[in-house]
Specification:
197 residues; four-stranded mixed beta sheet; globular; binds manganese (II) ion; Ribosomal_Su5_D2-typ_SF; EC 4.2.1.19
Length: 197
């Protein structure tokens, strides 16, 4: 068993400057500043409902638009997840969750398979929630899937309000990831017939 499942990632490009500290076995507390209010709210919800600890500070080129900031935060969070989870010995590997939010119901399933793949089934009826472009939700989860090398399925079962739909996605992803990263006493080494994840 790995004692300290924590990662610190710094990533600087001409578009964004990101500093993140992520802890799998955290307490749900977060300190987030991306410059995008709604995105902060989503990452705080992710941290809270996955019982992770997340400190994420991003200075991005928001004078262009929110694209680089959201995508690059996804890349960094994915790298942090991958590094913090480490060798994956003794963990459940799969996780899934349904999260309701009033009229909205979202399903998310994840597999820490070592192979990136995103299936994203959602339609938005507004272009923005606050300063957050709704088309960036898919980009964010796509970035996580390839930088964490994990399989993510997100499906909106029902929903009307775009704020509810996106928030339920972040919470469903958090709960699924929390389950997948949990230790199970019955798992000896890696949970794979192939012997590698
Ligand atoms: Mn909200």
């Amino acid at each position: 068993m790995q004692n300290d499942r924590c990662a610190k990632i710094n990533r600087k490009t001409s578009e964004t400057d990101i500093r993140a500290i992520f802890e799998v076995d955290g307490d749900g507390k977060s300190k987030i500043n991306t410059g995008i209010g709604f995105f902060n709210h989503m990452l705080e919800g992710f941290s809270k409902h996955g019982f992770f600890s997340l400190n994420l500070q991003c200075d991005g080129d928001l004078e262009v638009d929110c694209h680089h900031t959201i995508e690059d935060c996804g890349i960094v969070l994915g790298e942090a997840i991958k590094e913090a989870i480490g060798d994956k010995r003794g963990i459940k590997r799969f996780g899934s969750s349904f999260v309701p939010m009033d009229e909205t119901l979202v399903f998310c399933a994840v597999d820490l398979s070592g192979r990136p793949y995103l299936v994203f089934d959602a339609n938005f009826t507004t272009e923005k929630v606050g300063d957050f472009d709704t088309e960036m939700v898919k980009e964010f989860f796509y970035a996580i899937s390839y930088s964490a090398m994990m399989n993510i399925h997100i499906r909106v079962i029902s929903g009307e309000n775009n704020h509810h739909i996106i928030e339920a996605m972040f919470k469903a992803f958090a709960r699924a990831l929390d389950e997948a990263t949990k230790y199970d006493d019955r798992v000896q080494g890696l949970l794979s017939t192939k012997g590698s994840l």
